[in-house]
Amino acid sequence: MFAEEEYVQLAALQHFVFCPRQCALIHTERVWAENAQTVLGKLEHGRVDAAKSESRGCVYTARSVSLISHQLGIKGVSDVVEYRQTPDGELVYPVEYKHGRPKKHLADAVQLCAQALCLEEMHQCHIPEGYLFYQTLRRRYPVVFDEELRRETRITIKATREMLLGGNLPQAVKRKECTSCSLLNLCLPLPAAQPISEYNDRRFNAIVSES
Ligand code: SF4
Questions:
Q1: Is pLDDT of 206 > 70?
Q2: Are residues 166 and 176 in the same domain?
């Protein structure tokens, strides 16, 4: 069992896979900044959250569902959980709405898999797959919760908890994800080979120009 402060937010897992430093900045340092992508994403999420839960035929669509796993020490909110009645019983699967289009990294899939692990514990069921709905394409893509993704998700949960509880802030090293990161101007990442003194000079200049 986990103490209250040891529970990891589902959104933090997505941030950690995207970039551990971004995760620490948001969840430990409480730093946030918007860019065009995050603003669009918020507007799109607002529309999803405003819709009501509903039943259509054999499917009940629940929205903004609170999730928790006491075994894994994670909690958060799922955009949508669908409950489908079939001749073989009820199928449960999470659906997460995302801005943009499918990405090469596993950040969205790990977050969705963590939602499924919560639902499996809450409903004592097995969930073989879920869906990521990409707003730009207006399409949803199935994500299979195979053993590999489940293992990756458990490893991510453990690593995220250790980093956040330890208060660790990974170094600001430039990576390909930086171009789409809304924290770019606050983080000021450097190419790996550049000395830390150069980073401090740039950080100082940025603070001075903001004040
Ligand atoms: S700018 Fe780059 S290194 Fe900094 S938080 Fe964003 S993705 Fe991570």
A1: no
A2: no
Single pTM value for the model: 0.89
Structural domain count of the chain? 2
Ligand 1 pocket test, pick from 186, 187, 203 with the greatest ligand atom count within 8 Å of Cβ, gives: 187
d(CA 11, CA 74): 10
Residues 59 and 136 in one domain: yes
Which residues form the domain of 182? 172-211
Determine whether the shortest distance from the Cβ of 186 to ligand 1 is under 6 A.
no
Q: Please check whether residues 73 and 153 belong to one and the same domain.
A: yes
The residues, ordered by sequence, that sit 6+ positions from 127 with a Cβ below 8 Å of its Cβ are 92, 93, 94, 116, 119, 120, 145
User: What is the pLDDT confidence band of residue 210, given thresholds at 50, 70 and 90?
Assistant: low
Same domain for 195 and 131: no
Nearest ligand 1 atom to the CA of 18 is 7
Helical spans, DSSP H, in 135-175: 147-166
How far apart are the two ends of the chain, measured CA to CA in Å?
45
Of ligand 1's listed atoms, the one at least distance from the Cα of 184 is 1
Q: How confident is the model at residue 120 (pLDDT cuts 50, 70, 90)?
A: very high
Mean pLDDT within 26-31: 95
- Asked if residue 176 and residue 145 are part of one domain, the reply reads no
Which protein residue's CA is at the shortest distance from atom 4 of ligand 1? Answer: 187
Residue 197 — very low, low, confident or very high, per pLDDT cuts 50/70/90?
A: low
Same domain, yes or no: 13 and 104: yes
- 112 Cβ closer than 6 Å to some ligand 1 atom: no
- pLDDT, residue 157, reads 98
